[in-house]
Amino acid sequence: MARLRFGVLGTLEVLVDGRPVQVPAGRRRAVLTCLLVHAGSAVTTDTLVEAAWGGEPPADSRAALQTVVSRLRALLGPDAVETVEGGYRLPVPPAEVDALLLEDLLTRARTADPGTALPLLERARRLWRGPPFGELGSSAPVLAAAARLEGMRHESAELHAAALLDLGDPAPAVPLLQELLAEEPYREHAVALLVRALYRLGRQAEALDLLERHRRRMADELGLDPSPELVDLQARVLGHELEQESPAERTPSDRPPVTWLEVAAPLVGREDDLARLVGAVLEGPVTTVTGPGGVGKTRLAAEAVRVLPERSHLPVAVVELAGTDPGGVATAVAGALRLGRRTDDPAEDVVDVLATTPHLLVVDDAEHLLAEVADLVGRVARRCRGTRVLVTSRRRLGLPAETVVPLAPLATHSPGARSAVGTSAAVRLFTDRVRRLRPAFGVDPTNAAAVAELCRRLDGLPLALELAASRTATAGLDEVLALLPADETSTPGGTAEGLGLDRTVDWSYRLLKDEQRRLLAWLSVFASEFTPDAVRAVTAYLDPRSDPGAALAELVETSLVACRVEGRGARLRLLGVVREYAAARLREAGPDHETAAHRAHAAWVARECEQVADAWATEDGVLLRDRVEALVPDATAALRRTARPQAPDVARDDLVVALRLVAAVGRCLHWVPGPALGEAMLAVAELGAGRLSPGDLSDDELAAAGGVGAGAMVAVEHGELDRARRLALAGIALAGGADERWRAWCWGWRRCTAGTRRRRRTGSSGWAAPPS
User: Fold this and answer.
1) Mean pLDDT over all residues of the chain?
2) Residue 131: CB partners within 8 Å, gap ≥ 6?
3) ∠ CA(663), CA(667), CA(668), 5° rounding?
4) What is the CATH number of the domain that holds 301?
5) Which of 363, 380, 406 is the last residue of a domain?
6) Residue ranges of the alpha helices (H) in 487-558?
7) SS3 category, 670
8) Minimal CA–CA distance to 468: which of 610, 395, 63, 460?
9) Terminus of the chain with fewer CB atoms < 10 Å: N or C?
């Protein structure tokens, strides 16, 4: 099948396998334009006849339309236009129609930070060649779609100018806003942006004149006063209370560095490795950092990500695969890129976006999904010129375009070394980490041999050295060395490179008290960062009498739990190898203990999401959006555990909690779950629809009916209308008549499904854009 590309942001433009094709003016062009208005959706015969002949259709309009469609197929290819029940369809991917690409770019730019939004908006601006649909833009079948596209052009210009201002570059924003206001003089937000841009350029008199002219126009033409925002803005300009800066004082390159991992301690002993990695990423499409567990692959990549955006001028997307199941790589990457479900192939969605908007894509912890990652990254390397991919993995991907940066353990001294011990990278790292807890510590002739021996026994692995440093600060060097086995074969099944780390994690665990060991195992249920409050909530479910504060502090003190301060609180996390170890200890405790911990985690995340949903109508939506997005990894993990295929007999109470969680996420207004969470929500909703029957839910469990209804919401976003209708009806049945709130919620999604189906059938919806 030929590859078709269509442009409607100007005179109709058609490319067949990259070759321009001229569609003659007249009925063929009118029918093709009407099909493009509803690209991907069925268009009825009557609608197409109206587009081609207006109010004077031929006697046999269906036969005449078939002739027009046949001529279109002769131009574009036999499969270009599909015959469907009641009409025809143009089966073109969203990325091949410039108007749909425009909508996708704008959707992503609305929620992105200014540095990420700017290239998206610049790309959107370059798509325009003239008035939408050219000479057909004022015809009845496309008039509404053309007006909608013009509105998107205006919004795009406004967002573009706002991003430039946020990045400290007001000069190019001025002509953008002047052009916009010439067409849309009543857009008060654009007026406010132009006032700020003029003020920052030192043109305060022009800013005040603009405000006065706008005031007069509003009064003379509409009989209205300016908005309170503009009145306040005028007062601030008069009082010289607006911040004033110029591009010379703050440029886009002065943006704060991208932070993936917040690490207070410096990178020690990896200066050459960092320079080599940054150079490799800048020079080639795919770079893989390889090395054993605990060698510092993620830490080095995170340090590179802090400096690469300024040098590559690319927005950054990071996907952490540690908790990703087989088959979920493309969905996880799509989530990191903030893509909605555009087609049934998330890998193709990722490639389409990275081909039009190059990124620096970071894929962390790829070794357990190596073939899947290699397939996706290979497609990106072949088709997405300008995109750079940085992968961390214990093994390389094996791609032709791949540059491998092997990361070895830090250099150590030979056994018995005493001189110049403090110069080795391993000793420098160990010393730095001990000093952070015990500032007086240093390497001198009395302890040089012991320090060198300890670093050698730990194979120079940075994570092992950090764990040992925490113990040394409290227990002393001799005691730590005595407790750490010298025999490198003492860990059965270990590899030569991994023995130091395996021994150190296990040794650190064995030194803990029972309460601390139990808590570390419980912490493995968290899928991402967590807070001390979250730890208290989960442990309260497991043991209401326990107070985990002291045990948690000890785990942080020994570096088994990483901690960073954020505002007035703390964010905690388990490093990957520690999480694996802790999860293994939880499994060893037996299935009852593991199930109880997962149940406590699900109850906690359900309650957190419910609190966010309850506050959504009254509190700051931006702050609440940040809260719910921070919960996404844990919500996804909890739902996946409930719906996993290997556990078909999930307990009824666990299913009800999972459905409560789905309902809570669904109630977060104007926030659409990403692909991974959306799929997990659908799976749990289907499980609820299949396992629960009307009358099964008690009055305080009816939120579970809302969870089934929220599955309909996700199905609508995915375009699966039959599935959405079935789930909405199942939710209505489960809600019964006892609680109008949840019944009305499910009915709302039933009506939404019917309305979407009707609009698709009649073609009244305008652009059939991909769900955001």
Assistant:
1) 84
2) 10, 137, 146, 150
3) 125
4) 3.40.50.300
5) 406
6) 499-510, 514-523, 532-542, 549-557
7) coil
8) 460
9) N
700-731 per-position pLDDT tens digit: 898 999 999 999 888 887 778 889 899 999 99
Runs of H (alpha helix) within 59-187: 61-76, 98-111, 114-126, 140-166, 173-183
223 and 132 together in one domain:
no
CA–CA gap between residue 509 and residue 511 (Å, rounded) = 5
764: pLDDT strictly greater than 60: no
Q: Are 687 and 721 found together in one domain?
A: yes
We report the CATH number of the domain holding residue 577 as 1.10.10.10
The number of beta carbons lying within 10 Å of the beta carbon of residue 579 is 19
- Span 457-516, pLDDT tens digits: 888 888 889 888 988 988 888 888 887 766 543 333 334 444 456 677 887 888 888 999
Element (H, E) at 733: helix 721-735
Cα separation, 216 vs 653, in Å, equals: 65
Same domain? 322 vs 431: no
At 39, give phi and psi (nearest 5°).
-50, 130
How many CA atoms are closer than 13 Å to the CA of 57, on its beta-carbon side?
A: 14
* pLDDT tens readout for residues 740-753: 778 887 887 777 77
Q: Which amino acid is at 3?
A: R
Q: Which residues pair with 566 in a beta bridge?
A: 569
Domain final residue pick, 589, 614, 648? 589
Q: Do 431 and 402 belong together in one domain?
A: no
323 vs 303: CA distance, rounded Å: 22
- pLDDT score of 160: 94
At 588 the three-state DSSP class reads: helix
The listed range with the strongest mean pLDDT (26-40, 244-258, 472-486, 565-579) is 26-40
Distances (CA, A) of 8 to 81, 102, 765: 17, 11, 17
Structure tokens, 593: 């203990």
Please tell me the distance from the alpha carbon of residue 289 to that of residue 297, in angstroms, as a whole number. 6
| CA neighbor of 621 nearest in space, from 257, 629, 493, 556 | 629
- Mean pLDDT over residues 318-337, rounded? 88
Same domain, 650 and 680: yes
**Residue 84 and residue 66: Cα distance in Å, rounded?**
12
The type of residue at 486 is A
Rounded Cα distance between 748 and 448, Å, is: 72
Residues 359 and 286 in one domain: yes
Q: Would you put residue 763 in left (φ > 0), alpha (ψ -120 to 50) or beta?
A: left
Residue 567 lies in a domain: yes
Q: Do 531 and 477 sit in the same domain of this protein?
A: no
Number of domains, the chain? 6
Quick check: is 259 in a domain? Answer: no
C-alpha distance from residue 465 to each of 425, 495, 496 (Å) = 11, 18, 16
- Copy the structure tokens of residue 77: 């290819």
242 and 284 housed in the same domain: no
Is position 402 within any domain?
A: yes
Domain boundaries, position 471: 421-510
